TrEMBL record:
SUPFAM superfamilies: Protein kinase-like (PK-like). The keyword ATP-binding applies. Keywords: ATP-binding, Nucleotide-binding. One of its GO terms (molecular function) is protein kinase activity. ATP binds at residue 48. InterPro entries: Kinase-like_dom_sf, Prot_kinase_dom, Protein_kinase_ATP_BS. This is Protein kinase domain-containing protein. PROSITE patterns: PROTEIN_KINASE_ATP, PROTEIN_KINASE_DOM.
Length: 67
């Protein structure tokens, strides 16, 4: 079943599978933040996993990135 936001383009976002999670560095009301690195370049980033109202904890469809 396709979700409404599946067709939304995000030209500055990479696929989360291109990153390796290194450690959990924070947690809050809206989600979790992980230290990660790009598998090819080694660039370190923070990945924020945002839990939406209708998603269960552990759903990986809600991951965003920040640099």
């Amino acid at each position: 079943m396709a979700k409404q936001y599946d067709s939304v383009e995000c030209p500055f976002c990479d696929e989360v599978t291109k990153y390796e999670k290194l450690a959990k560095i924070g947690q809050g009301t809206f989600g979790e933040v992980f230290k990660a690195k790009h598998r090819k370049t080694g660039q370190k980033v923070a990945l924020k996993k945002v839990l939406m109202e209708n998603e269960k904890e552990g759903d990986l469809n809600s991951v965003g990135m920040s640099f």
